[in-house]
Amino acid sequence: MFEWSSGIRVAYCVDAPLPDLLSPFRRTFSKVATKYCHNITACNLKKQLVFGPEHIMFVEGFPRREYGAIHIKFYVVFPHNTEAATKQPRPLLPRAVLSDIISKHLTEISNRLGWSIISYEKYPRFDSMTEFMNIAIIPIVIFSIPLMIFLAYWTSSLRPNMSSEAWLVTGATGGKNAALRRTMEIIAEQNAEIDRQNRMELTKHMMITGGHEGITSSGQMLLDVAR
Questions:
Q1: Which letter does DSSP use for residue 45 in this model?
Q2: How far apart, in whole angstroms, are the C-alpha atoms of residue 109 and residue 24?
Q3: Average pLDDT by stretches of 10, the chain with 227 residues
Q4: Three-class SS of residue 101?
Q5: pTM (two decimals)
Q6: Distances in whole angstroms, Cα of residue 210 to Cα of each of 28, 204, 207, 217
Q7: Same structural domain, 154 and 182
Q8: Could you tell me if 156 and 98 lie in one domain?
Q9: Domain range for residue 156?
Q10: Quick one: which of 56, 124, 162, 203 could link to 166 by a disulfide (CB 3.0–4.6 Å)?
């Protein structure tokens, strides 16, 4: 019956017997429903009709007391021989129509009954979990937007402060190529240093060898003179 019923919550004396609410509500709502359905298109009708109190039915278990108020849930049955403009599953006014009737005639219903209507069921209405998610998602979105902005700012301010080594590590192909070139340069520098040291050692060896030969030649000359 969810798609064919609606409801209102009324501030009413909790000591009043619930059956005393039924007849006044039926009379009042049948009148405003008849007035609303003068627009046959709005009620999916081929011709105008008149609703009576007997066409206003209450959902099982209603009306009932809830949190200091009276909750009334009801549905409206079409009178006998009603012709619908388009075929519909049940001979009832749809939930959307009931909600629109209450919305447009809320003041009239309240004045006729002398009730203070706290709230009424609007259309479309979702199940309790969907309603909770619709309510909860709003603060989540509000909190998430500044958080994402902060993270974006923090990330952008962090990257320029990274060391050159970090850029080489985190870089793409260009960073890897630069690291490889630097490695090859270091190897070449080390090889050049080794070659330089080898040349120095060779030069020292040649100087020492040449010195010995000079001494030998001088000694030979002295011996020749003495003779």
A1: B
A2: 10
A3: 90 74 94 96 94 96 88 95 91 95 95 92 64 61 76 65 49 61 80 81 63 49 46
A4: helix
A5: 0.54
A6: 133, 10, 5, 11
A7: no
A8: no
A9: 130-160
A10: 162
